[in-house]
Write a structure and sequence with these properties.
The complex is a heterodimer of chains A (157) and B (89). Chain A is an all-alpha fold and 157 residues long. Chain A contains 4 helices and no strands.
Chain lengths: 157, 89
């Protein structure tokens, strides 16, 4: 089991947690306006888990509730598939919410604009679903691989 | 002898990559531009999304993204099955 790092590193990791979460959420929610989307945003939020693993050691990994994360992963993928199937009136993955003046349905003209959040139809909803799935999946994968590497090193000694 | 085989394989690979690089299609000048033009002209109005890449990834080519998300889901399940048991002993 790797040791905890110094209190300075731990405190800085705790302070950095808030900007990392906010930046990840920003990347996910503005996926249809700026470069980014669900995959990078979820990966940014999962990098917080890696930072905490380095700062707090492998003992911290045992506190992670894998049940909730598996649920988040499953719900994200199911929501993504459901949104795809809801457009089946026209075709699979049809964007039925775009330009409909309902949820995320504001229509925009062609050309440059300042970027409206309430646009994009199913694209922002799918970004949120994929972001949830990527965050949960990487938060499961990173601690397990980290701690299994530590345990294999201990076994060799 | 073994070293010679290794070096010759390396040289062969280098020659292949150089040839492939020389015959690469000219960048930024595609033969068929119909689909690109369609996405650039209609993508923003049809999907309401400023980011054309997001419009293509999550709307026009959504099935690819579904496969991509499923791959990550399967990877997490695989890691849980293979390495998860060694953790909770």
């Amino acid at each position: 089991m790797s040791k905890e790092m110094s209190p300075i590193v731990k405190n800085v990791a705790c302070v950095l947690a808030i900007p990392i979460i906010i930046f990840g959420l920003y990347i996910i929610l503005h996926g249809h306006l700026t470069p980014g989307g669900g995959f990078p945003g979820g990966a940014i939020m999962a990098s917080l888990v890696a930072l905490f693993l380095i700062a707090f050691g492998t003992g911290w990994a045992k506190k992670i509730n894998k049940g909730i994360l598996s649920w988040g992963e499953s719900i994200g993928l199911a929501l993504f598939g459901l949104l795809a199937f809801l457009g089946l009136g026209t075709s699979f993955f049809n964007n039925f919410l775009a330009n409909s003046n309902s949820l995320f349905g504001m229509s925009i003209p062609f050309g440059p604009n300042q970027g409206f959040l309430w646009t994009g139809g199913t694209i922002p909803l799918m970004n949120i679903a994929v972001g949830l799935e990527v965050f949960a999946a990487l938060s499961i994968i990173i601690p397990i691989m980290f701690s299994s590497d530590e345990s294999s090193k201990e076994g060799k000694k | 002898m073994e070293k010679r085989i290794k070096v010759s394989v390396l040289l062969l690979l280098c020659a292949f990559l150089l040839m492939a690089g020389m015959f690469l299609h000219e960048e930024g000048n595609p033969d068929e531009t119909e689909m690109d033009d369609y996405f650039i002209e209609n993508g923003q109005v049809e999907t309401g999304s400023n980011n054309i890449v997001a419009a293509i990834v999550f709307d026009y080519r959504g099935l690819d993204t579904l496969g991509e998300a499923s791959v990550l889901f399967a990877a997490a399940i695989g890691v849980l099955i293979v390495l998860g048991a060694t953790k909770n002993e």
